[in-house]
Specification:
- This protein has nine helices and eight strands.
- It is of the alpha/beta class.
- An eight-stranded mixed beta sheet has the order 3-2-1-4-5-7-6-8, with helices on both faces.
């Protein structure tokens, strides 16, 4: 069975920018996986870090179940996602275990370092897909199969210097918008936190608005998720674009 994994920094990041594409792949018979590197332990001003992490883990499990995805537990904390060997060895072990054909992750340019560091870690972890001499934690043999990487749109559709990002690909998520919305709504603890910390007093509406904006950018879809294709060198054949092949009836390249 073909397999895809979404790798994001925090609980709810997948739901904002990647979940619709996961649902499209599942619809086509793919096995889908869900990993947040951080526990989300800093995502509250009312509960301490340990309690917050527990709350957010349960919410993430619920969201993954709504998507029909296999949930993988986090192994880091908010603002502690660093591009270092400890994180890389742990992430590479998960990637080897899952053996994905497609990896979905953050944009290389985004508004915060947890996102960009997660992107860097994911790219390097995927690069070890055929490297038995790279030591993972725990030791996990590589799958020895090609893997394709796709980068989601940054939050707000702009990079950290406010430059607008344009996707290479658009995935029509309109038929799955309600399920994606339901998965984000599972992160109930984030309503008050996002309002207090980032001014998102309607985070569910923010998701809908962004999906609609990306749909408008496509000039074809009502709601869409945008993707940029990672350079295939060292990852997969130059001619391969498995996301387009899998979703040929609901995907289009940028005009």
């Amino acid at each position: 069975m073909p397999t895809a994994i979404a790798i994001a920094a925090h609980p709810d990041d997948i739901e904002f920018t990647m979940a619709g594409t996961l649902l499209r792949l599942k619809e086509q018979g793919w096995d889908i996986h869900y990993l947040n590197i951080s526990s989300g332990n800093c995502g509250s001003q009312q509960t301490g870090p340990e309690e917050t992490a527990k709350i957010r883990a349960e919410e993430a499990k619920e969201a993954a179940a709504i998507l029909g995805a296999t949930w993988h537990p986090p192994f880091s904390n908010d603002l502690e996602i660093l591009y270092d060997l400890s994180h890389l060895r742990k992430l590479a072990a998960i990637v080897h275990q899952v053996a994905p054909d497609i990896v979905l992750t953050h944009s290389p340019q985004d508004y915060m370092e947890d996102h960009t560091n997660t992107c860097r870690l994911t790219v390097t972890a995927a690069f070890t897909h055929s490297m038995p001499n790279f030591r993972t934690d725990p030791p996990t043999p590589p799958p020895f199969k090609e893997v394709a990487l796709y980068h989601a749109m940054p939050h707000g559709l702009h990079d950290q210097l406010r430059n607008k990002i344009k996707p290479d690909l658009y995935v029509d998520i309109t038929p799955h918008s309600d399920t994606k919305h339901q998965a984000l709504a599972a992160h109930r603890s984030q309503h008050q936190w996002l309002q207090a910390s980032q001014g998102l007093n309607a985070y569910l509406q923010t998701q809908l608005d962004q999906d609609h904006k990306v749909g408008q950018m496509s000039q074809s879809y009502n709601k869409a998720e945008g993707w940029r294709i990672h350079n295939p060198l060292g990852f997969h054949s130059q001619k391969e674009d498995p996301l387009t092949q899998a979703l040929k009836d609901s995907i289009m390249h940028s005009k």
